[in-house]
Design brief:
Length: 417
C-alpha cells in the first residue's frame, strides 16, 4: 500500500510540475511588455472626446501598443510645447502648428524624417504638392491634415434685409456700411490676425507687389504699410467694421456684425448658431479691387499638422499611430471635417461615402480650390508684428501721429527674415 501511495504521490507531483510549467509559460506570454508611445494635441472638449475614442480603437486594433495622451486647449498647449521642444521631452506623435516647423527646425534636427517610416506610414494618399507644406530643405518632417485660409463669411439674410449686395470688391463694403450704419450694424468684423492678413491682400492688390520676397525678407516699404494703415483707418471711420480690439464674437450671433473674416476651420464655431436660427450664411468671393485676379493677395496654409519626435524610441509604432490618424476609416469617421477637409485621399474617400462633405466649412474649403492662393509664411503670423501694426494704426486713427510717421515707426520695429 505504501508503494502504491508513493507512486501516486510521484505521479501527482509530475502532473503538477507539468501543469506549473505550462502555466508559467502562458504567464510569460501574457505579461509581454507593451510598447508605450505618447501623443499630444490641442482642442476643445468635442475634439478631445472623439480623439480619445479614436485612440481606444487604435489600441484595440494594436494591443501591443499603449498610447499615453496629453491634451489641452490651445494657449496651454502652445506654452507646454515650447518647454517640451526645448527640453527634448515632447511626445512621440504630436499635433503641431504650421509655424512650428520653422520655429523648431533646428537645422533639420527638430522633428523625425517621416519618409524613413515607410514601413508603417502610408503617404500614397497625399500629393507631392500637399507634402511640400511639411517639407524643409527637401526633407518631409510633418504631415498637413487640412488646408486653411481666411474667408469672408456673410450673413446674407441680414445683408438682404438692408438691400445690400454680398461684397465682391472693397467698394462694396463701403456701400453696405452706408446702408447698415444707421441701425448700428457693421458689414464686416475680424480679429487682429484675420484683419492683418485681409489688409495685406488689399495692399498687395493696390501696390502690385508681395509683402515678402521669395527668400522671406521684407518687400514692403514704409509707403506700402502706410497704405495698409490708412485703409484700415477708412474701414473704421466709415463704420465698415469695429476696431479689432473691440471685436466680440458674440456680436455675430446678435447680428450686430453682418459678416466676418475668419479661417475656414472657424466656419462652424463662428456661424453655427446663425445657421441653426435659419440664417443663410454664404461664402463671399475673396475681396478684390475691380479687374484683380481672383484670390490675389490671399494666403493659405495647413490648418494643423502632425509630426513625430526626433527623440522617439519607437519610430515604427509612432508611424503606425500617425498613419492611423491621417488615413484610417475609424479616425476619419470620428473626426469628420472638424479639423477641415482632410488632404489624405484615403480619409476623404471615407467622408465622401459617409456623406459628410457638405455644409459651410466644406463650401469654404471648395472656394480655396477655385484659385491659386499664395503659401502663407509663418512670419506673417508673428503676434508681435501684428500687435505692433495695430498699435501703430490706433495711434494714427486717434491722431497721435501722422500717417508716414506711424508707418515708419512700425517699419523700424520689423525684423522679418
Amino acid at each position: 500500500m505504501n508503494i502504491i501511495k508513493r507512486a501516486a504521490a510521484l505521479l501527482s507531483c509530475a502532473v503538477l510540475a507539468s501543469a506549473c510549467g505550462c502555466s508559467s509559460k502562458a504567464k510569460v506570454t501574457e505579461q509581454k511588455k507593451q510598447v508605450e508611445i505618447s501623443f499630444s494635441w490641442w482642442g476643445n472638449d468635442a475634439r478631445n472626446k472623439y480623439t480619445l475614442e479614436a485612440i481606444n480603437k487604435f489600441e484595440s486594433l494594436h494591443p501591443e501598443i499603449k498610447v499615453n495622451c496629453s491634451y489641452s486647449e490651445w494657449s496651454g498647449y502652445e506654452k507646454r510645447n515650447k518647454v517640451w521642444m526645448i527640453s527634448d521631452t515632447e511626445c512621440d506623435v504630436m499635433q503641431i502648428n504650421y509655424g512650428w516647423l520653422t520655429e523648431y527646425f533646428d537645422n533639420g534636427n527638430g522633428y523625425y524624417k517621416l519618409r524613413e517610416l515607410s514601413d508603417t506610414l502610408d503617404l500614397s494618399g497625399y500629393s507631392e504638392d500637399d507634402l511640400r507644406y511639411g517639407t524643409k530643405d527637401g526633407v518631409l518632417y510633418a504631415l498637413p491634415i487640412a488646408m486653411n485660409t481666411e474667408t469672408v463669411y456673410i450673413n446674407k439674410t441680414l445683408y438682404d434685409s438692408f438691400g445690400a449686395k454680398v461684397p465682391e470688391t472693397w467698394d462694396d463694403l463701403f456701400a453696405a456700411a452706408e446702408l447698415m450704419e444707421p441701425k448700428g450694424v457693421y458689414p464686416l468684423s475680424a480679429t487682429s490676425k484675420s484683419m492683418w492678413l485681409y489688409l495685406i491682400a488689399y495692399a498687395e492688390q493696390t501696390q502690385g507687389k508681395k509683402i515678402l520676397k521669395e527668400d522671406g525678407s521684407l518687400n514692403f516699404t514704409a509707403e506700402d504699410f502706410a497704405v495698409m494703415i490708412d485703409f484700415y483707418a477708412q474701414l473704421i471711420d466709415k463704420k465698415v467694421m469695429p476696431l479689432v480690439e473691440h471685436y466680440e464674437r458674440i456680436k455675430l450671433d446678435n447680428e450686430e456684425y453682418a459678416g466676418s473674416v475668419a479661417w475656414v476651420s472657424d466656419a462652424k464655431s463662428y456661424f453655427g448658431a446663425a445657421i441653426d436660427n435659419g440664417r443663410e450664411i454664404v461664402i463671399a468671393d475673396y475681396t478684390a479691387k475691380e479687374g484683380c485676379p481672383h484670390g490675389e493677395g490671399w494666403y493659405a496654409k495647413p490648418a494643423t499638422m502632425y509630426a513625430v519626435s526626433k527623440n522617439t524610441a519607437h519610430p515604427n509604432e509612432a508611424g503606425m499611430l500617425l498613419d492611423y490618424l491621417v488615413n484610417s476609416s475609424q479616425m476619419a469617421t470620428l473626426q469628420g471635417i472638424e479639423k477641415g477637409i482632410p488632404l489624405s485621399s484615403h480619409a476623404k474617400k471615407v467622408l465622401q461615402s459617409d456623406g459628410v462633405l457638405t455644409g459651410l466649412q466644406y463650401d469654404a474649403s471648395k472656394k480655396m480650390d477655385l484659385c491659386t492662393l499664395s503659401e502663407l509664411s509663418p512670419v506673417l503670423e508673428n503676434d508681435t508684428i501684428i500687435n505692433d501694426f495695430f498699435t501703430a494704426s490706433t495711434d494714427y486713427i486717434y491722431q497721435k501721429a501722422g500717417l508716414m510717421e506711424t508707418a515708419a515707426a512700425f517699419c523700424n520695429k520689423l525684423d522679418i527674415s
